[in-house]
TrEMBL record:
Record Pfam families: Lactamase_B_2
Keywords on record: Hydrolase
Highest taxon, organism lineage: Archaea
InterPro entries xrefs: Metallo-B-lactamas, RibonucZ/Hydroxyglut_hydro, UPF0173_UPF0282_UlaG_hydrolase
Name this protein carries in UniProt: Beta-lactamase superfamily domain-containing protein
Record bears the keyword Hydrolase: yes
GO molecular function: hydrolase activity
Organism: Halogeometricum limi
Residue stretches making up the Metallo-beta-lactamase domain: 13-212
């Protein structure tokens, strides 16, 4: 079993996290807009403006930013406006040019692995849905952060061989899953539903956290439904801090 560490993960909202390790804090997938700033995700069952809920009262102090992919619920217009243009910004290689075009000056695409302030960062693959729909959703990445603690942020992916291989490849202390069973009017969910989370839970001894719920209109799986369906998974509320 993983041992106790001094790392922590605070859920801000949706997939926006503050990951602290080795005295370094990463702001992950910043979606910083006010409720209703974005239109609904199209072709989905629940047509409500996004985000659905406000940001909690959380101190957004950080040393670097990590963006798993540039869908607007992971990097929105408010984040573009509020982030300092010289913040160290880690991303997948396919999207580095877009950040440079937005005049971020310290963009650090992660091909395989890199390091920052005592933390090793390794990029991992995933599948943002099933079949042809996953291909249309574009590339997505997860990241493993290692600094005493080892934390896997799976990103927007369903249960797949890539996730299973990542779980098998690292001695993980924590796994953070983007749940919510995000759904279009056709096709299967494009983020983890109950069965996906259960598959991860049965495949690792690490602490498992599920986020990415109740903030965007196409995420239909609620926290209470997931808590009822899968045992031994932490489902934090917005603003909640989880120490490993």
């Amino acid at each position: 079993m993983p041992t106790t560490t001094d790392a922590s993960i605070r859920l801000v909202r949706h997939a926006t996290l503050l990951l602290a390790a080795a005295d370094t804090t990463f702001l992950v997938d910043p979606m910083l807009g006010a409720p209703g700033d974005m239109p609904p995700i199209e072709n989905t069952p629940n047509q409500r403006d996004n985000p659905l809920v406000p940001l909690p009262d959380v101190d957004l102090t950080y040393d670097a930013v990590v963006v798993t992919h540039r869908h607007p619920d992971h990097f929105d217009e408010a984040a573009k406006a509020e982030l300092a243009d010289d913040v160290p910004l880690f991303c997948q290689p396919e999207e580095a040019d877009a950040f440079v075009e937005e005049e971020f000056t310290d963009v650090r695409p992660v091909d395989d692995e890199t390091a920052f302030e005592g933390v090793t960062i390794r990029r991992t693959p995933g599948r943002h849905g099933h079949g042809e729909l996953a291909e249309r959703m574009g590339p997505v990445s997860g990241f493993v952060f290692e600094a005493g603690a080892s934390v896997y942020l799976a990103g927007d992916t369903v249960w797949c061989d890539d996730v299973e291989r990542t779980l098998d490849s690292y001695d993980l202390d924590a796994v953070v899953l983007n749940a919510g069973a995000a759904q279009f009017l056709e096709g299967d969910p494009i983020t983890m539903a109950e069965d996906d989370v259960a598959a991860v839970r049965s495949s690792t001894d690490a602490t498992v956290l599920a986020v990415h719920m109740e903030a965007i209109n196409h995420c239909l799986l609620t926290r209470e439904e997931l808590r009822s369906a899968v045992d031994d998974v932490l489902v934090p509320d917005d603003g909640e801090d989880v120490r490993l």
